[in-house]
Amino acid sequence: MAYTVKELFYTLQGEGGQAGRAAIFIRLAGCNLWSGREEDRDAAACRFCDTDFVGGERYGDAVALARAAADLWPGGGFPLAVVTGGEPGLQLDDALVRALHDHGFEVAVETNGTIALPAGLDWVCVSPKAGTELKVAAGEEIKLVWPQDGIDPDALLRLPFRHFFLQPRDGVAGSVQECVSYCLTHPGWRLSLQTHKLLGIP
Q1: Which one is catalytic: 93, 101, 122, 196?
Q2: CA-CA distance, 141 to 127, in Å (whole number)?
Q3: 51 among known catalytic residues
């Protein structure tokens, strides 16, 4: 299978349970909840995405993509590949997970949870969107962008995840304070900040 990759880069994980950890990010193109075109945003299932996931470079197979990711790793440590998007579930498959493992990576995914994922992932982060059905209902962390109308954080706490993060919605006035207040009154949730934006790194 060929893969369309919007971005492939080395940086620090900026948010969630692995914040601060060095990682190769594999941003796969495409999403099932929004086309990525501004003219479609108001009618999209997810209207607040802040990521460009349209277009990109084609990789002919999983080994070629895993090799390109490995070439960016500086050596040593504990290699981590974060497969994200858009929605990575549109392209992520067993072959890519296996190829990344074969190149020494721990494989994490950041998904909206509406598409079933391949087996063998080491870290699953689900960011639920209101009005959608979760097909991925277990994993390492839920990262809920907040505020978000039409979604009940308390219901999510019943799902079998290890960590529950509330992340302020980018560009919404007062969202940081609202998340802080919610975490204080609902201590099952932890605050996640987009530290990469605060630090000015990719």
Answers
A1: 196
A2: 9
A3: yes
Using CB atoms within 10 A of its CB, is residue 176 exposed (0-12), middle (13-18) or buried (19+)? middle
Q: Show the tokens assigned to 129.
A: 């969107």
Provide, rounded to the nearest whole percent, the portion of the chain with pLDDT above 90.
Answer: 96
This prediction's pTM: 0.96
User: Per this entry, what is the length of the chain?
Assistant: 202
Contact 19, 190 (CB under 8 A): no
Cis ω before 86 (30° cut-off from 0): yes
- Over range 142-149, report the average pLDDT: 97
Name the active-site residue from 15, 87, 105, 110. Answer: 110
Grade residue 194 by pLDDT with cuts at 50, 70 and 90. Answer: very high
Q: What is the CATH number of the domain that holds 123?
A: 3.20.20.70
Structural domain span for residue 174 = 3-199
